[in-house]
Amino acid sequence: MALKRSYPALLLSLVLLGAWLALANGQSRLPTNDRFLRRHWDNPKTKVTNETSYCNLQTSARGLPKKNNIFIHARIAVINRVCTTDGRPFSGNQRQSIRRFRLTACKLKADGSTYTEKRLTRRIVISCRNRLPVRLVRIIRF
């Protein structure tokens, strides 16, 4: 009986610890930023047995629709800084990164069920809200 009663306290402790760690990392909660990270962030890059399975794994594990996508392989703090000190104004609320990022571009093949994977190093343009990235607009060749 005592063990059953400790679960809510343990769960609450874990939730509070997670919130504290997020605040300690300088991460504020913004649903659109969470969506951006779910769709585009993978650091360190997930290891897979072959290159063709990476994109399939990422889209299915994240519940993303079958379409072209780009994954950024950098720390969240580095990506977030594009919206502040490490980005140049681009258009409206969009900013272009000063540094280049390691990326993986997943392009859906004509069969609609598999992807081609391309590793890139590019600058990115992102839309920002409350000093956080909310949408990947494009990648820029140098």
CATH superfamily: Ribonuclease A-like domain
Assign a percent range to the helix content.
25-40%
Largest sheet report: 6 strands, antiparallel
Number of strand elements: 6
Please indicate the percent range of residues in DSSP E strands (runs of 2 or more). Answer: 25-35%
- CATH domain topology: P-30 Protein
Number of helices: 4
Tally of individual domains: 1
CATH architecture: Roll
Distance between the termini: 64 Å
- The best one-word shape is globular
CATH class: Alpha Beta
On the 0 to 100 scale, the average pLDDT is 82
- How does the helix and strand content classify structurally? alpha+beta
Poorly predicted regions are 1-21
Order of helices and strands: HHHEHEEEEE
Describe the structure.
The protein is an alpha+beta fold and 142 residues long. It has a single domain, classed as Roll (P-30 Protein), CATH 3.10.130. Helices cover 35% and strands 32% of the residues. It has helices at 2-24, 31-40, 51-62, 76-80, and strands spanning 69-72, 87-91, 94-97, 101-108, 115-129, 132-140. Strands 1, 2, 3, 4, 5 and 6 form a 6-stranded antiparallel β-sheet that branches. The longest helix has 23 residues, at 2-24.
Describe how the helices and strands are arranged.
Elements: H1 2-24, H2 31-40, H3 51-62, E1 69-72, H4 76-80, E2 87-91, E3 94-97, E4 101-108, E5 115-129, E6 132-140
Antiparallel strand pairs: 1-4, 2-3, 3-5, 4-5, 5-6
Protein name: Ribonuclease A-domain domain-containing protein
Main location: secreted
InterPro entries: RNaseA, RNaseA-like_dom_sf, RNaseA_domain
